[in-house]
Write a structure and sequence with these properties.
The protein is of the alpha+beta class. Helices cover 30% and strands 38% of the residues.
Amino acid sequence: MTPTWILIATVLAGGLALPARAEVRQASGNGFELENSALVQAPADRVWEAMTAGIDHWWPKDHSWWGSESTLRLDARAGGCFCELAGERQAQHLQVALVEPGQRLRLLGGLGPLQAMGLQGVAEWTLEPQGQATRVVWRYTVGGYSTTDLTALAAVVDRVQAQQLDGLVRWAGTR
């Protein structure tokens, strides 16, 4: 079984809780665009801090290269790294391209198996204050040459990102 299909089977078997809104906006054989959003019962500055400095607390360890053996960190500055460290083993998941503290964070790269497939992505997190709460919108656009039809993979990646966003909502809302 290929890593892509193992990922699909794992996600579908997991019964993931979805955030307030999850959507595959577009999907084709060579790319897709996803959008997940949720309302966090916390102000934008607290959500930002949880999202960046607290990423190791809310990003699901079953969606990292080395699980509980590793530490995730996000250096929220242009050129910074969303990296995973497990002793001598290291992985760059995404690279930071744009930082507007408390408002928007843009990262570049392919997450998980997408990286090994040679695909590129743009992940953008937007924080929108709504009274005492904050709406978090996560858009992820992926494209490139692939020997795998990405149409079916879009829904799987969307579910994984919904799980990741749910982790942020829970972590930021309880801090």
